[in-house]
Amino acid sequence: MPKFLIERDIPGAGHFTREQLIAISESSCRTLRGIDPEVQWLTSFVTADKIFCIYIAPDEEIIRRHAFEGGFPANVITLIHNVVDPSYADA
Fold first, then answer.
1. How far apart are CA 23 and CA 84, in angstroms?
2. Looking at the predicted structure, is the pLDDT value of residue 69 above 80?
3. Which of 3, 11, 22, 63 is a plausible cystine mate for 80, CB 3.0–4.6 Å?
4. CB neighbours of 80 closer than 8 A, spacing ≥ 6?
C-alpha cells in the first residue's frame, strides 16, 4: 500500500502541550477507525507551525477524507516513492 507525507499548516503547533497532542492523536485515530481500518498513521513530526505526518493509505482521497472528517488540514499530500537512510551509503 502506498505511503504519503501529509503537510498540515497549524500555526503554533510547536507550542502544543502534551495533553493537546494526545487529544489530537485520539481524534485522528478515532476518525481513521471510522473511515478505513487498513489506513495506518505511522508517525508525525511537529515543527513551529506545521505537522508533517506519514500515513499508509490506498490513495490520496482517503487522506483528504480523514482530514475533512477529523477537522484538521491536509495542505499538501505527497506520495512517497522511496525511503532512504544512511545505510544506503554502506551498500
1. 32
2. yes
3. 3
4. 2, 3, 4, 5, 54
Residue given cell 500555526 in the structure block: 11
Q: What are phi and psi of 10, to 5 degrees?
A: -135, 95
Tens digit of each residue's pLDDT (9 = 90 or more) over 7-30: 999 999 999 999 999 999 999 999
Residue 6's SS3 state is strand
DSSP codes joined into one string, 8-77: EE-TTGGG--HHHHHHHHHHHHHHHHHH-TT-EEEEEEE-SSEEEEEEE-S-HHHHHHHHHHHT----EE
Query: Cα–Cα distance between 63 and 86 in angstroms, integer?
Result: 29
